[in-house]
Design brief:
230 residues; alpha/beta; TIM Barrel; nine-stranded parallel beta sheet; 9 helices; binds pyridoxal-5'-phosphate; PyrdxlP_homeostasis; Ala_racemase_N; pyridoxal phosphate; Pyridoxal phosphate homeostasis protein
Length: 230
C-alpha cells in the first residue's frame, strides 16, 4: 500500500518545523531560505543525527565538546556538507578540541576565551566562525557577556584578537517575553555590521524569525525530550 507519510518521528517532526519556519518567514516578509535550522542533537545518539541527515538536515548543534567529538567526526566522511555548531558554555581548556571539532562556535563570551580561541586557531590551523553570546537578560547564573560590556567586547574580539566573529547569539530569560531580547540582539548586530543572528529555540523560534533570526536552534521539537540535567 503506497504511503507518503513519514513514519520516523524525526522525519515528521523535521518536516513540521520546516513548514513552521516557512510560514514564519512568509509572515515576516522574509525569504524562507534566510533562516538556517540548527538541529540541536545534544543527549541524543548518533543514530538520531543520522536519521536527520537522511532527511537533508545538515546543520547540528551540540553543547558539550566531548559529546560532539564522540558523534560527529565519524559522520563527516559520508556527509561532507555536515556543519557542527557548538552552542554550550566553553571552558578555556577545551578551546583546542572545540576548534578542531566545530564549524561554528556560538558561545564566545569573555576575554579569556577570546585569547584561548585565538591561540587554538593558530595552533590547529583551523578557523571556525564565531558568534558572541550576549547575556541579554543580565542573568547572573547565565553564560554570555553582560549587556553593558558587549559592544566593547565585540570590538576587541575582532580588532585586537583578529577573530572571525560573524554574529551574535542569545538565550533570553526563561520566564520573560523573548521578543525584546531578540530585538536588542538584532540592534546590536546591526550596529556592528554582523550578519548572523542565532536566536530562538523550540518554544520561541517563530518570534525570533519575526525579529530577524538567521539561525534558530531547535532540539526538543525535532528529537523529543531530554533527560533533566543532573
Ligand atoms: C539545548 C539548547 C537549545 C535547544 O533547546 P530546545 O528547547 O530543546 O529547542 C538551544 N540553544 C541552546 C544554547 C541549548 O543549549
Amino acid at each position: 500500500m503506497p504511503n507518503d507519510l513519514p513514519t520516523d518521528p524525526i522525519a515528521s517532526q523535521l518536516k513540521q518545523i520546516r513548514d513552521r519556519i516557512a510560514e514564519a518567514c512568509l509572515r515576516a516578509n522574509r525569504a524562507p531560505g534566510s533562516v538556517t535550522l540548527v538541529a540541536v542533537s545534544k543527549t541524543h545518539p548518533g543514530a538520531a543525527v543520522e536519521a536527520a541527515l537522511a532527511c537533508g538536515q545538515m546543520v547540528f548543534g551540540e553543547n558539550r565538546v566531548q559529546e560532539a567529538e564522540g558523534k560527529f567526526p565519524a559522520l563527516r566522511p559520508a556527509w561532507p556538507a555536515l556543519r557542527l555548531h557548538l552552542i554550550g558554555a566553553l571552558q578555556t581548556n577545551k578551546a583546542r578540541e572545540a576548534v578542531r571539532v566545530a564549524d561554528v562556535i556560538e558561545s564566545l563570551d569573555r576575554p579569556k576565551l577570546a585569547v584561548a580561541l585565538r591561540d587554538a586557531m593558530a595552533r590547529e590551523g583551523r578557523q571556525p566562525r564565531l558568534l558572541v553570546q550576549v547575556n541579554t537578560g543580565d542573568e547572573p547564573q547565565k553564560a554570555g557577556i553582560a549587556r553593558a560590556e558587549a559592544d566593547d567586547f565585540i570590538r576587541a574580539c575582532r580588532e585586537e584578537h583578529g577573530l572571525p566573529v560573524t554574529g551574535l547569539m542569545c538565550i533570553p530569560p526563561a520566564e520573560a517575553d523573548p521578543r525584546p531580547h531578540f530585538a536588542l540582539l538584532a540592534g546590536m548586530a546591526a550596529r556592528h555590521g554582523l550578519a548572523v543572528l542565532s536566536m530562538g529555540m523550540s518554544g520561541d523560534f517563530e518570534a525570533a524569525i519575526a525579529e530577524g533570526a538567521t539561525h534558530i536552534r531547535v532540539g526538543t521539537a525535532i528529537f523529543g525530550g531530554r533527560p533533566a540535567p543532573a
